[in-house]
């Protein structure tokens, strides 16, 4: 199996290295990832500047290719130009920080996986919820590998399908998550907060200090299940059509 591994934290991030080490168990892994940190850049692509590429050793066995662009650029370029053939599976992550709730819409990690799904490939986004203390990416990677194996068994992730996986934080050694829950995406908004400050010359600027509160969220959502200590599995779709509204509007513009 040929696996494309990418992320949004950049090719030198600890999460992609941990993912690489475990994914070798499943096949030949090619790393194509952003040259710089691209968190919360969503599904942007680069169209007006060149996509510079660089060979970057990821570990002793693998030289990856970094792309001076967005996560979605990496997937497009990898599939179109850089890989020896079309990948059988695309993995994005392991992201530093959870991608649950509406964060899914901002996430470059998820955007890379969605891009792969656009291209008709099976794709899985992986993220680790950060809590107090040093995150154990190797532990998270072992949890992810187990989930990936169960997802892909018997073609569980179809071509063109994307699955979003989040691992609870604070686990290490032989500690295990409470379990794995298949859950819907939470659509509650953030508590948006901006701190206003002044530059030395008196010009106002704003710092985003928004908090993503996990408290009180429904247990059947990705946010709630992750808060409760479960690995979350959420299949996503990229067709943004509202089919309810489509039916209501249908015929309204007929002559
Ligand atoms: Mn990130």
What would a concise description of this structure say?
With 255 residues, the chain is of the alpha/beta class. The protein is 26% helix and 24% strand.
> How much of the residues is beta strand, in percent?
15-25%
Helices, by number, come to: 7
How many β strands by DSSP? 11
Query: How widely separated are the two ends?
Result: 54 Å
**Multimeric state:** single chain
- Which word captures the global form? globular
- Which small-molecule species are bound to the chains here? manganese (II) ion
User: Spans of 5+ residues with little confidence (pLDDT < 50)?
Assistant: none
Q: Taking all residues together, what is the mean pLDDT?
A: 95
Q: Provide the succession of SSEs.
A: EHEEEHEHHEHEEEEHEH
Q: Which structural class should the secondary elements be placed in?
A: alpha/beta
Biggest sheet architecture: 9 strands, mixed
Q: Rg from C-alpha positions?
A: 19 Å
Helix % is: 25-40%
Strand line-up of the largest beta sheet? 3-4-2-1-5-6-7-11-8
List keywords for this structure.
nine-stranded mixed sheet, alpha/beta, binds manganese (II) ion, 26% helix, two-stranded antiparallel sheet, 11 strands, 7 helices, 255 residues
Structural account:
The chain is of the alpha/beta class. 26% of the residues lie in helices and 24% in strands. It has 7 helices and 11 strands. The strands form 2 sheets. It has a 9-stranded mixed β-sheet, with helices on both faces. Strands 9-10 form a two-stranded antiparallel sheet. Strand 3 and strand 4 form a beta hairpin. The longest helix is centred in the middle third of the chain and has 16 residues. The structure holds manganese (II) ion. The site of manganese (II) ion has 6 residues, from strand 5.
């Amino acid at each position: 199996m040929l696996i494309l591994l990418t992320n949004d934290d950049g090719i030198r991030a600890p999460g992609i290295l941990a993912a690489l080490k475990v994914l070798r168990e499943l096949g030949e892994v090619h790393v194509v990832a952003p040259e710089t940190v691209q968190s919360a850049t969503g599904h942007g692509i680069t169209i007006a500047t060149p996509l510079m590429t660089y060979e970057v050793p990821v570990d002793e066995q693998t030289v990856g290719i970094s792309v001076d662009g967005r996560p979605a650029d990496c997937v497009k370029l990898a599939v179109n130009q850089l890989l020896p053939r079309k990948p059988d599976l695309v993995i994005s992550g392991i992201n530093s920080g959870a991608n649950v709730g509406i964060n899914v819409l901002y996430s470059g990690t998820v955007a890379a996986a969605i891009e792969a799904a656009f291209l008709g490939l099976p794709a899985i986004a992986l993220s680790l919820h950060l809590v107090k203390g040093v995150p154990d990416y190797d532990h998270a990677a072992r949890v992810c590998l187990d989930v990936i194996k169960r997802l892909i068994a018997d073609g569980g992730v179809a071509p063109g399908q994307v699955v979003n996986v989040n691992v609870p934080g604070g686990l290490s050694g032989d500690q295990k998550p409470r379990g794995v829950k298949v859950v819907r995406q939470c659509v509650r908004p953030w508590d948006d907060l901006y701190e206003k400050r002044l530059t030395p010359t008196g010009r106002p600027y704003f710092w985003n200090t928004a908090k993503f509160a996990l408290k009180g969220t429904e247990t059947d959502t990705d946010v709630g299940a992750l808060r409760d200590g479960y690995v979350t599995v959420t299949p996503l779709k990229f067709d943004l059509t509202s089919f309810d509204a489509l039916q209501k509007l249908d015929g309204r513009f007929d002559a």
